[in-house]
Amino acid sequence: QVQVLESGGGLVQPGGSLRLSCAASGRVFSINVMGWYRQAPGKQREMVAVISSGGSTDFADSVKGRFTISRDNAKNTVYLQMNSLKPEDTAVYFCNVVVRPGPLMGYWGQGTQVTVSS
Which of 28, 47, 72, 118 lies most in the core, judged by the most C-beta atoms within 10 Å? Predict the structure, then answer.
């Protein structure tokens, strides 16, 4: 079994920054893709940013230029640096880790709340 634990959420004013962290532990042999998703009240979960084992990244259009994603393979950890935060970034942020061997859709964390408000 693999455990995924997020941290770093909180309340921040518009224009501020937050850094989310996500660590995978347990029976982790090889991590493929690591990513961040978010779900706002009344909306579907959406991809925010993903990073492959080789370092290739992809971002939602709404966060390009403001968010960066990075990973530390030695620590099985992925980070999401969020700058210039907007109220519309308010959501529960979930980490997803795809390991091999493992389920196709990967493992999910329980989520961390990010609230952008003055």
Answer: 28
| Strand order through the sheet with 18-26 | 2-7, 18-26, 77-82, 67-72
Instruction: With beta carbons less than 8 A apart as the criterion, state whether 12 and 115 touch.
Output: yes
Three-state DSSP at 91 gives: strand
Geometric angle at alpha carbon 20, from 16 and 23, rounded to 5°: 170
d(CA 105, CA 7): 21
Q: Output the furthest CA–CA distance in the chain (Å, rounded).
A: 44
Dig out the tokens for 43 from the structure: 């909306």
Helix/strand/coil for 107: strand
Whether pLDDT at 29 is above 90: no
What pLDDT, in 10s, does the model give residues 105-117? 899 999 999 999 9
60: part of which helix (H) or strand (E)? none
